[in-house]
Amino acid sequence: MENIGVFRDSFNPIHIGHINFLNMVKKEYNLDRIILVPTNNLRNNITLASIKDRINMCALATKNMNFLRIYKENLKQNRLVYTVDILKEIKKKYNNCELHLILPQTVLPYFDKLYKIDEILRIAKIRSIASKIYYEFFHKKYTNINKDVIIRREELTNINPTKLKCMLAQREDCSNFLDAKVYEYIKNRNLYKGKNFLFWECYTVCKRHTSRKRFIHCNFVAKAAKELAKVYGEDEIDAKIAGILHDIMKEKTENYMLNLFKKYNITLSPMQMLNPKVWHGLAGATYIENVMGIKYANILNAIKYHTIPREDMTTFEKIIFIADSISQDRKYKDIKYQRKIAKENLDDAVLYRLKSAMLSLIKKQSTVFTQTLECYNKIILRKNEEYKKNEN
Known about the structure:
The chain is α/β, with parallel strands linked by helices. It has two domains: 2-159, HUPs (Rossmann fold, 3-Layer(aba) Sandwich); 194-391, Orthogonal Bundle (Hypothetical protein af1432). The protein has 18 helices and six strands. The protein has a six-stranded parallel beta sheet with strand order 3-2-1-4-5-6. Helix 3 (83-93) runs parallel beside helix 4 (117-123) and helix 16 runs antiparallel to helix 17 (346-363). The longest helix has 22 residues, at 370-391. It is elongated and about 95 Å long.
């Protein structure tokens, strides 16, 4: 009887991590062949390459792996196809076989939510290999696991698909993560390219990390940032990216952010330690640079300083700072006035927001960051100098 593994993934794109994982699974579970099943793109996800391109990349990456086959029925099916239905089709085609559904480790925490999981377990055994954190989480959550579900622990080649796509969008060197022929195919086909693609990848990440209410706010800030960028001559797509990502860490716990700072050697000042509510700006910039791999300094600084403005804020940083305050979801009493001055004079808008924020802190007898005062003073001094010049 032939042992056949079935591995369903987006393969967007297929990378070295996939290849190493497949080789390990084949050896660990003594599989005769593995069938790769690239998922369809029925939700018109802009960051997902076409099914044809992903099948072609899978073919290039696995050309010398004779035990692999690629399931191409998805090219013909412009509809939702569940894993259980694919398993039935494969079982019918390979009559005398034992099926093994191979799960990526990221699916393990919620594998029991797979559509018709009981029926899946009647058709196939479930197999995976997971690194320590996923392995331990899985066995802690599922104490009475079905005997046909076997997960082995072993460290895997860790390639973050989001970071890979962000690197590709910025045209950074990705040769260490991709088969050479796949990499060439991506460049020749102009896949995963440019800032517009990068925005939609960031949009997807924001949706994954935020609540519905926060996600709506981030979308409105991206829209406001784009409008202000147009008024003040800044890059509109950069503004959208900074806007959609500015609060990506807003709803994370203090412990989560402290661990992030520790991991990337970020030291908080005594003043920052007293004010956890402002950590998400620095945490967001840290996450976006190191985990997502975005290297645009203007975007990183705008997110970093949108909670605590600095003395020499750039025009772009001011745009994100103000967009956060005047977005469509804001309901302040003076919001119409704030939106009006934002499009007339950016410095006036910054001063107005700074005064409002500092007065609120003073009334509460809370501390005011020195760099916030420096930012306020810098703009006031510059405006005074401009006023004197105009008088003369």
